[in-house]
Amino acid sequence: MPLTFLLVLLVLTTVAFCCGHRRSHKVAAEIGGISKLHSRPTYYGSLAALWCALPAIVMYSIWLSFESSIVTNLVVNDLPESLRNLPVSELGLVINDIKNLVSGNIVAKIPNQTILAAAEHYRSLINISQAALAVTMLGFAISGIVVVLRSIKPELKARNQVEKVVKALLLISSSVAVFTTIGIVLSVLFEALRFFQQVPLTDFIFGLKWSPQTAIRADQVGSSGTFGAIPIFTGTLLIAAIAMSVAVPLGLMAAIYLSEYAHPKIRTIVKPLLEILAGIPTVVYGFFAALTVAPMVRGFGSSLGLDISSESALVAGLVMGVMIIPFISSLSDDVINAVPQALRDGSYGLGATKSETIRKVVIPAALPGIVSGILLAVSRAIGETMIVVMAAGLSANLTANPLQTVTTVTVQIVTLLVGDQEFESAKTLAAFALGLMLFIVTLGLNIIALQVVKKFREQYE
Amino acid sequence: MNKTPKKSLSTAEIVQSGLKKRYRAERRFRLFGVLAIVISLMFLVILFADILWKGAPAFRQTHIKIDVFFDPALIPLNNSDRADYRGLVKKNLRNLFPEVSGRRPKRELNKLISSGAAYELREMVVADPGLVGTTSELWLPADDAVDIFFKGYTEGDRFSERQRKWLKTLQDEGRLRKQFNVALFTNGDSRDPELAGILGALSGTIFTLLITVLISFPIGVATAIYLEEFAAKNRLTDFLEVNINNLAAVPSIIFGLLGLAVFINFFGLPRSAPVVGGLVLTLMTLPTIIIAGRAALKAVPPSIREAALGIGASKMQTIMHHVLPLAMPGMLTGTIIGMARALGETAPLLMIGMVAFIVDIPKTFTSPATALPVQIYLWADSPERAFAERTSAAIIVLLVFLIVMNATAVVLRKKFERRW
Asked: In this complex, which of B43, B268, B395 lies closest to A69 when CB atoms are compared?
């Protein structure tokens, strides 16, 4: 359906453009050539096209965003009393059944008469709404064309108007980023606040026990759910620390070698190869960690007499570290290259060897950039999901032993939300609280990273 | 000073004495650098080798040759797509081993062949009803356990002695053969590894990425143009820039939470639909495209702008007619790289429910679907060995797509890169 709408609109817009174009030519012919017009004919055409398409599209999106909820409300109001007074969740099921019937999907149970009637009602309402929408859109589009066509005169400043509209569209586009941020903050914050109404904030941040199994039925025993997030935070930090202890030395040394020692030819080959590591999807790393590295590490451990869990923090951290190597190496590479040659020459002039120069002069000069790169890498390690989902465990152990299973914020978000649980439960909302923490921490790390660069960067002329 | 003349070392001598040590340190440091690179690249090689090693066998699938007699007694003529094809397969399989009797052995024998064989026969008969009553020699897919056995992974199989003997007979008679695994590319997901394919996930990915590219490219380019060409240097612009840079660093799973809360719970869009996945990935890739687009616009020299303005073009005309076309290759490169990232993204799609077990191949933007990386995640969780193989095969397909996309970006950059 939407596709037909858009196609029709597209055709109309094209027609509008042609009409505007031709009309301007006609107007111009009467007064002696298109050079007498204010703008070139294309702009008159574009103006007509814009007036045809824009109002209709705006109308269409407003309509669509409210259609479903209004129709559902109307249908629910017409349901018999007994159905309407069901609890929200069961009513939701009934509505789902109705919608499934309408779209021709399989329903959970054999529908009774009322549901069938409601589905019929729903269908008719949708049909009415669609018809009305079609008429309104056509009306808007055509009247837009007519208005513009009638206003085409030599002195109409079509170009200025078109450019104004285009500029406004550009501005609207660039506000999408802001709306995304607002959307993230609001959605995560709202759900998190609802969670904190059920579980006090202090329990969440300082609690030592995480066991999110809440009772599905009121009469269930023993699973009240405790939401102390400390074990999750420590698990996240443990895995991130392991990852960084792999990635920082390797990435930094690789960057130093590539920018200071390597022959340019080697550099042009090795650098893209390293970048490949960053381009591999994380789900591939997860698979690699879970099915190849974990058994390997486990076997190695047992040959040493160590008991390594098959979902140990070590494996997840190790593989995540590999993923982050190119991140650190390319960021450090940039800052090391930005250190002016004069500093190196000065150091050589005093008789320092190359490695001494690097350690005592280049690295200190590049340090703010490197630290900022490392902070960004930490933020990435904390937010990384698929590797830990596939290779780290679910049990929230409060331990610093990398051979044991720990869980992370992202793992918990995934397991809490991918499952059958009603949305209102503390268990689901806890995912949003964790998401809020994740967002705040990564945002904080990014801001600190930017500040580090801004504050401590040496300005070399 | 005036005490016993202690032999004082000259500066040069002090330096000389430490020189050996310093050179050793120098070599050590260099070695560390080489080691770091070698270790990193080794990881890369091991990763690729492991995936290829595990995944390559999945492209070939074991089939069993059976002489199928399309028994008219089992296939009613007027209703050929409802016949008992499973029975037909079983009966013809039993013809190979007429000595088998008893319930248990029969059931064990039937386990050798895939349940997909019956569908294949049905399709054949429906396409050509003339087959009924004839006998033809057909290669039918074997069960995944047979497949794994035939590929040489004999340890840990759960075959009985009898089954092993039958397999040996089949193998000796040349009735077992590996052929190209068509099902992998033409089927949707399945609980049976030998029937599971990536087509469903692949089309889900295509629908999702279509939405992503259709929305993110225009918005990204428009934002880049606005910020680079029109925006005044003020607080608002700074705020926009900081915003975009921060979005680029927000973990992808947070975008999934946004999609769940806003698109699904607030706007009521369907769960598991490519359209929601596409919207979420759009928001995720936008910063990449914007940043690349701005860099591309910045690279266009001011002389182009000045020349256009000088001959009377308006600012908008200058940008749309001259600057934008010159910046387009760079923008396209950025977009392709952003798409490649979106292609491999899994976590946000888990949040919006594109993680269901879906057999049907999605046909529209709103039908339930998964995506290729999500399929990999799902299969990786399955215990059967044959699924581990298929997971690697799916990864190979995913990596091929990624390599093609990135190579296109590189070629594009090389071809249109201009030094002004």
From this structure: B268
- CATH code of the domain containing B228: 1.10.3720.10
B80 within domain boundaries: yes
Residues B176 and B209 reside in one and the same domain: no
Residues of A in contact with B28 (CB under 8 A): 355
Compute CA distances B337 → A338, B97, B286, B296, B347, whole Å. Answer: 25, 57, 11, 14, 18
More confident residue, A123 or A390: A390
| Domain limit, last residue, from B147, B181, B215 | B181
How many domains would you assign to chain B? 2
pLDDT of amino acid A247:
95
Do the bridges between strand B60-69 and strand A226-227 make them parallel or antiparallel, or are there none, so unpaired? unpaired
How high is the pLDDT of residue B4? 54
Nearest residue, CB atoms, B41 vs list A176, A273, A438? A273
pLDDT, tens digit, for every residue of B361-406? 888 888 889 999 999 999 998 878 888 889 999 999 999 999 999 9
Do B254 and A188 make contact, defined as CB atoms within 8 angstroms?
yes
DSSP B200-236: HHHHHHHHHHHHHHHHHHHHHHHHHHIIIII--SSHH
Q: A309: which DSSP letter?
A: -
Q: Is residue B347 part of a domain?
A: yes
**B309 near A CB under 8 A:** no
Within 8 A of A354 by CB-CB distance, chain B residues are 26
- Contact A177/B243, CB-based, under 8 Å? yes
Residues B276, B367, single domain; the answer is yes
Is residue B237 situated within a structural domain? Answer: yes
- Please indicate, yes or no, whether residues B225 and B369 belong to a single structural domain of this protein: yes
**Are residues B231 and B364 both part of a single domain?**
yes
What H or E segment, with its residue span, contains residue B335? helix B324-344
| Residue A110 confidence (pLDDT) | 64
Domain boundaries, chain A: 2-156, 226-456
C-alpha torsion B109→B114→B117→B120, nearest 10 = 180
A180-225 pLDDT, tens digit per residue, is 999 999 989 988 998 898 888 888 888 888 887 765 555 555 556 7
Q: What is the mean pLDDT of residues B333-344?
A: 92
Architecture of domain A226-456: Orthogonal Bundle (1.10)
Query: In chain B, what residues touch A167 (CB-CB under 8 Å)?
Result: 226, 230, 316
Q: Please indicate whether residue B410 or residue B208 has the higher confidence score (pLDDT).
A: B208
A97, pLDDT greater than 80: no
Tell me, yes or no, if the pTM score tops 0.90. Answer: no
A86 pLDDT band, cuts 50/70/90, is confident
User: CA A47 → CA A16, A158, B216, distances in Å?
Assistant: 9, 6, 25
B79 and B116 share one domain: yes
Average pLDDT over residues A262-278: 91
B193 within some domain: no
Residue closest to B420 by CA, chosen among B328, B332, B335, B326? B326
Quote the CA–CA distance of B420 and B403 in Å, as a whole number: 30
Contact A184 B219 (CB under 8 A): no
Let me know whether B169 and B277 are in one domain.
no
Q: Best of B39, B257, B341, B359 to disrupt the A interface by mutation (most A CBs within 10 Å)?
A: B257
Q: Is the pLDDT of residue B305 over 60?
A: yes
Of the two residues A363 and B269, the one the predictor is more confident about is: A363
pLDDT in tens, A123-141: 888 888 888 888 888 898 8
Cβ contact (<8 Å) for A380 and B251? yes
Maximum separation of any 2 CA atoms in chain B, in Å: 125
Q: Domain range for residue B213?
A: 199-416
Same domain, B73 and B219: no
What is the phi/psi pair of residue A227, to 5°? -120, 65
* Residue B60 to residues A222, B138, B197, B393, B395, Cα–Cα distance (Å): 50, 17, 13, 10, 16
Q: Are residue B407 and residue B300 in the same domain, yes or no?
A: yes
Is the model's pLDDT at A423 over the cut of 80? no
Determine the distance in angstroms separating the CA of A147 from the nearest CA of chain B, rounded to an integer: 25
